[in-house]
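Hello again, I could really use a second opinion on something today. I've been puzzling over a protein and I'd love to understand its fold better. I'm sending you its amino acid sequence along with the backbone structure tokens. It would help a lot if you went through both lines with me. I've dropped the whole record in just underneath, so have a look.
***
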Amino acid sequence: MNVIWLSPSVLFGLAAVAAPILIHILVQRRAERVPFPTLRFLRPTRLASIRRHVLDDAALLAVRAAILAAAVAALAGPLVITAARRQSWERRIVRAVVVDDAANTAARGVRADPGRPPGAEQAPPLHLSREFAAASLPDGIRRAVAWLENAPPARRELVVVSPFAIGSLTAADLAGVPASIGIRLERAGTLPGTRTLPAGRVLGADGVLTREVTLDGARTLVREAAAAEPSTWPISVTNTPASQPAIDAAVAAVLSQRVWAPAPDRRARLLVEPEKGYGPFSGGDVFPIRTPWMADAAARLLRDVELQTAAARVATGFVDGQFSAAPWQAVAFSADGRPLAVAAESSGRLVVASAAAASDIVTPLLMRSLANGLGAAPDLQIGEVAPIADRLLREWARPAPNPSAPVADALRKDESENDRRWLWLAALCLLAIETWMRRARSAAAEAREEVARVA
């Protein structure tokens, strides 16, 4: 058995117990008048003032101090964790249900507490439940876990209801669920056998093509058609005249593999080996990247594994220090740790400078990654028709464990889960005792005065 305090900072108020002690010590008490028949036979003496700093009623003082201590302890919110209380927590369950909002409507008909097959272990009674509708299962799981972590002590369970199309949920999405929360994955609804959806626009050697994808079970069919729009390479390249053949070959190689076609307002400028004498940038001032789509494109360069691997094989990066400081942001590094490619923003364009030679493999890889970063890749996940294997769902699931240490934030909201009421009751009882003792003391003093007066 142990005790936790829901508001331990309140315990500093126990210093108030010193107040009644100081009052008892410092209060100026009047001398008690005692009737005396005659004073003529007493020898006159010099009068002296005497102040006594003693406690004349320790019992009353102890009761008053105990009242303050009980009130402060009650405000601090004690919780005595006994074996019986822990067993009561283990006999109930708190459940968060995440329902796939983009799933078949049949998924939303699944009950928050689905029945169990005959012979299965009896589930604990449901103490609290909440449903989270989510267009994205990972987002719904994050919100559900945050709610469960602040729920009252109980066996906690996360239930995910979805048709579970491939890619809608991964092991990484469930890795962030604490071990104190059980996971149950309930498949509900059906996925269509086939689905056709637009798959974006690509830019190739033949111009702009519009793609359409048909997902048919495990098969994926892609159809392309020429788009009624002019083909424009979105990257203007600045380089030395001697390197122009290598730049033309790099652009042709990238277009032969096709890249995502960007929106008309998304353009970039590539400076190849600017340290060779044609100036760092003649198109205006450069600034740190602040436009969101430019930041996304720069992040794509950093995430491109092929580009980073090829850059690491280049012996040295920029020697000129101007490309290693603001406003330039490094997006690739050479073997010596210097920036090999840097990015900045200028006049509505993303500007990328590269220290790699035009004939180096880094140049076409940088062009391809930059072009794909300017384009908009379609999200085909919403059209997936193949489900996650039942074997994986069973591997990801786990039973709800017994509750560990209770969460103080949640207990503050549940007045039934603390023992402060007993301390308040004790404080009231002590207050009644203090009132009785004070009245009894006053009555005794009056009786002594009456006896003395009669005498």
